[in-house]
Write a structure and sequence with these properties.
Length: 245
């Protein structure tokens, strides 16, 4: 095993502060920008549902994907990871951007996407060079980094397996933002190495047959549920009335 990856477990908990401007955070990160909103409450609900699942089975590494691009998987990943960090400040929480084709975690959080997972897996840097703490939270983040020529090959490498082993040892909860499932093989390759996979679906946009195809492509992965993204509050009369009070 490469020495850099061998030492990863020792370095991971020691993240450095790299504060991002709060104005640079995407407004859809409602767990920060609108923590009292109905949308933020839904992300907290999603997190506690995962917590209940953890009472029944080990689920340290949870990945999020979607059938196609543009369904909101990255925004969901960021909000879920931040909800986890706020709910359990004593736990070590890590968010990994494994979408090496179009990594959006860093820009969504207003962070600089310098070195990241791609450079780490290429052996160009050390883990402590890519792990950053987001703002004043306890959330640690590893951005995607530069897009490699062969993303699928990089994610299927032995280094990636070593990296996942290291973060399992170094953190209590790990959330992984995967590429969309249908356009690429990446999500299917990594999905089998996750303890749980969530499928993000854009309400009134993603056809059911497309979702079915994506689920079939993830066959063998631990698919634990789906997240309906972009649903109107009006679609849930009780929630609509409750929010008005």
């Amino acid at each position: 095993m490469d020495s850099t990856m061998e030492r990863a477990g020792n370095f991971l908990p020691r993240v450095d502060d790299s504060a991002a401007s709060s104005n640079a955070v995407d407004r859809r990160v409602v767990t920060l920008t609108a923590p009292a909103s109905a949308a933020a409450e839904q992300y907290r609900t999603l997190y506690y549902r995962l917590e209940r699942m953890r009472e029944q089975r080990p689920m340290k590494v949870v990945a999020l994907t979607s059938a196609m691009p543009g369904e909101g998987k990255t925004v969901t990943s960021v909000n879920l990871a931040l909800a986890a960090a706020r709910a359990n400040p004593e736990r070590r929480i890590l968010l990994v951007d494994a979408d090496l084709r179009r990594g959006q975690v860093a820009p969504t959080l207003g962070m600089r996407n310098k070195q990241g997972l791609a450079e780490l897996l290429a052996g160009e840097c050390d883990v402590r060079d890519v792990v950053r703490r987001f703002n004043s939270t306890r959330l640690a983040v590893i951005p995607a980094g530069a897009t490699p020529e062969e993303s699928t090959q990089v994610l299927a490498s032995a280094r990636m397996k070593q990296f996942l082993k290291a973060v399992r040892e170094g953190f209590d909860e790990v959330y992984v933002d995967l590429p969309p499932t249908l356009p690429f093989a990446d999500a299917a390759i990594l999905g089998h190495q996750m303890d749980g996979v969530l499928m993000v679906i854009r309400a009134n946009v993603t056809p059911s047959k497309v979702v079915k195809q994506a689920v079939e492509q993830l066959a063998g992965a631990a698919l634990v549920g789906c997240v309906l993204n972009g649903a109107e509050v009006n679609a849930t009369p009780y929630l609509k009335n409750y929010v008005k009070k």
